[in-house]
């Protein structure tokens, strides 16, 4: 019903406006007494065969919501009720920022994709941390952190440290986002020398806070772009090994426009931004496979990019991912998506084995 009736109606309106309407409606409906429990019973698959322990965290299932959907940590219980095993909030920055001018989110309906140039629009790390202090126990939440647009790259570390400190007590793991194409100069931080310095400093702060608070350090992951060359991916493997971070999220959106079915002039009118969804599926899987093979499986990889079905998720897992995340696929597939993927995984002999 969602794809036949609801989606065509929603697609008549501006993509960002629909996002705000849909998330507000979800929050309102699930605030009605008993509705959250009903949604959980309808959409959650509770099966021990789905559980995964990754970088010291026990995940009830391997299907998570990627960063970008819930930038401000306002929908964590609601997304959990829809069957997701974990939710990644953000990207958050130290100071609130409006992001890039609208319109900045576009649908590639013929491709099953999106183009976005949101630009880290968010209310800031502090307010996100405040909301997460009240979240129900047992929900696994990752904190995706970035720098403010007006912060020069030479001072980027300060931004990441501020958000890291704000969120330390309220998230289960961190993701360092240096791969969004929508903040000018951000991807320059993916180069080996500045990235190594950034991750080493965060690891040092991680140990300092953990020692002072007598807790375990938080897993830190790096989110990378699908547009990296093999040489750059080799550097990523070396950096992860050197800095001893917990793993990698592969991948973010792509700046490539190759192979799109949407007419080129229509794509050109949409302008700059990162492409997500089915157009990035194959490349994301290639990156996962390359990292897994090159590293000998030395670190966990969260696979994201073009996952719509259980087969798409299995493709990422077989390539070397340990967990997967969705975003664009959720827009196209609807609220039962996580359940369908989990049920499909359980039907697959290679997954069960």
From TrEMBL:
Its cofactor is FMN. GO terms for molecular function: dihydroorotate dehydrogenase (quinone) activity. Pathway: Pyrimidine metabolism; UMP biosynthesis via de novo pathway; orotate from (S)-dihydroorotate (quinone route): step 1/1. Transmembrane segments: none annotated. Catalyzes the conversion of dihydroorotate to orotate with quinone as electron acceptor. Monomer. This is Dihydroorotate dehydrogenase (quinone). It comes from Rudanella paleaurantiibacter.
């Amino acid at each position: 019903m969602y794809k036949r009736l609801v989606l065509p109606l929603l697609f008549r309106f501006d993509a960002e406006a629909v996002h705000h309407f849909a998330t507000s409606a979800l929050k309102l409906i699930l605030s009605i007494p008993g509705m959250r429990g009903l949604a959980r019973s309808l959409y959650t698959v509770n099966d021990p065969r789905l559980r995964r322990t990754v970088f010291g965290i026990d995940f009830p299932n391997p299907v998570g919501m990627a960063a970008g959907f819930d930038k401000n940590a306002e929908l964590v219980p609601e997304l959990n009720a829809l069957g997701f095993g974990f939710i990644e909030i953000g990207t958050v920055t130290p100071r609130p920022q409006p992001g890039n001018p609208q319109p900045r989110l576009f649908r590639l309906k013929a491709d099953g994709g999106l183009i976005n140039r949101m630009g880290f629009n968010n209310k800031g790390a502090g307010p996100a941390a405040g909301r997460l202090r009240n979240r129900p126990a047992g929900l696994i939440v990752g904190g995706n952190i970035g720098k403010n647009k007006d912060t020069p790259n030479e001072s980027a570390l300060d931004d990441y440290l501020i958000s890291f400190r704000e969120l330390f007590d309220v998230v289960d793991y961190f993701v360092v986002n240096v791969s969004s194409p929508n903040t000018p100069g951000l991807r320059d931080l993916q180069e080996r020398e500045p990235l190594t310095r950034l991750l080493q400093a965060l690891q040092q702060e991680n140990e300092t806070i953990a020692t002072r608070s007598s807790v375990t350090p938080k897993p830190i992951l790096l989110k990378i772009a699908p547009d990296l060359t093999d040489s750059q991916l080799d550097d990523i493997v070396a950096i992860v090994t050197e800095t001893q971070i917990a793993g990698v999220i592969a991948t973010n959106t792509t700046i490539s426009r190759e192979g799109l079915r949407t007419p080129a002039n229509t794509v050109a009118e949409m302008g700059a931004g990162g492409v997500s969804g089915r157009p990035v599926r194959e490349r994301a899987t290639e990156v996962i496979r390359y990292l897994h093979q090159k590293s000998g499986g030395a670190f966990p990889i969260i696979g994201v990019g073009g996952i719509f079905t259980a087969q798409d998720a299995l493709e990422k897992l077989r390539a070397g991912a340990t967990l997967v995340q969705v975003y664009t696929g959720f827009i196209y597939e609807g609220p039962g998506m996580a359940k369908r993927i989990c049920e499909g995984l359980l039907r697959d002999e290679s997954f069960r084995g």
